[in-house]
Write a structure and sequence with these properties.
This protein is of the alpha+beta class. It contains five helices and 15 strands.
């Protein structure tokens, strides 16, 4: 698989898909509170996707060696790193949950993003983890410009995360996206500056660091999808889809309900907002 460079029509298709993916998260946000189940979140997300004329990219998704994924979204609670399957256990005060939404438009474009949600009053450690992971994502995004390399993105994230005593999961990464869910390139959230693929205008990919309070080691659960921290420490993740523009970048998955862009972010991100 090679990297697909989007033309004007492709960029328009990606903008629409990503806008809706972010809007789905906006739509479900008021409902995410103590007592809701992740199955409820899945149902609400599916209903929102349908209202916006899209469908889920994850339900029935089956890469080689995996069982079909059973949810419209991924819901990863507490020590679940990613790919948590929606279930009927109610969320309680103190939990943190990542909701990962990927939609497919009628024209076949994919939009992918995720947010963390704090359920009621959470611990200082949990709040710090969520906030620092959000900042790490944006530090990575802010490296994006023509001529930069993917190693610059990964290095910025890794240096920031490890500088705060946290760890970056290495087995999962961001990815190119377009009219396929997962395209080249792989976007690692660690690395060395000046290495990796050179960024050029028209590339679209996700930046989605997974960050643990404890060690970076993970394990897969028997369901074939759910990934957890091996030491059962809390994990957090945020995700945006980004377009490389001639002068920098555009974050495609921004909407009215998106959390505010950090003050330290410069350049095109603020213009894109």
């Amino acid at each position: 698989m090679s990297i697909t460079i989007k033309d004007e029509a492709g960029i328009a298709g990606m903008r629409e898909a990503c806008r809706i993916a972010s809007q789905v998260l906006d739509d479900i946000t008021p409902h995410i509170r103590p007592g809701i189940t992740t199955l409820d979140i899945d149902r609400l997300s599916a209903e929102s996707m349908a209202r916006h004329g899209t469908r889920s990219a994850t339900i029935g998704y089956q890469p080689p060696g995996y069982p079909p994924y059973p949810g419209h979204v991924c819901t990863s609670v507490n020590h679940v790193v990613c790919h948590g399957i929606p279930a009927d256990k109610p969320l309680k005060k103190g939990d943190i949950v990542n909701v990962d939404v990927t939609v497919i438009t009628q024209d076949g474009w994919y939009g992918d993003n995720s947010r963390m949600f704090e359920i009621g009053e959470v611990s200082i450690a949990a709040r710090r983890l969520c906030a620092l992971t959000f900042d790490a994502m944006w530090l990575g995004i802010d490296q994006v410009r023509p001529g930069a390399r993917l190693g610059d993105v990964g290095h910025a994230i890794q240096k920031f995360v490890e500088g705060h005593g946290l760890s970056v999961v290495r087995e999962f990464c961001g990815h190119g996206i377009g009219q396929r869910f997962h395209e080249d390139p792989q976007v690692l959230h660690y690395g060395r500056p000046g290495t990796g693929e050179e960024l050029v205008p028209g590339m679209t990919f996700t930046i989605e660091p997974m960050v643990n309070i404890g060690r970076r080691d993970i394990k897969e659960m028997p369901d074939g999808w759910t990934i957890v921290t091996k030491d059962r420490s809390l994990s957090a993740q945020w995700e945006h889809t980004v377009l490389v523009t001639p002068t920098g970048y555009e974050v495609l998955t921004l909407s009215a309900g998106s959390p505010a862009i950090p003050e330290f972010v410069k350049g095109m991100a603020r213009a894109a907002a």
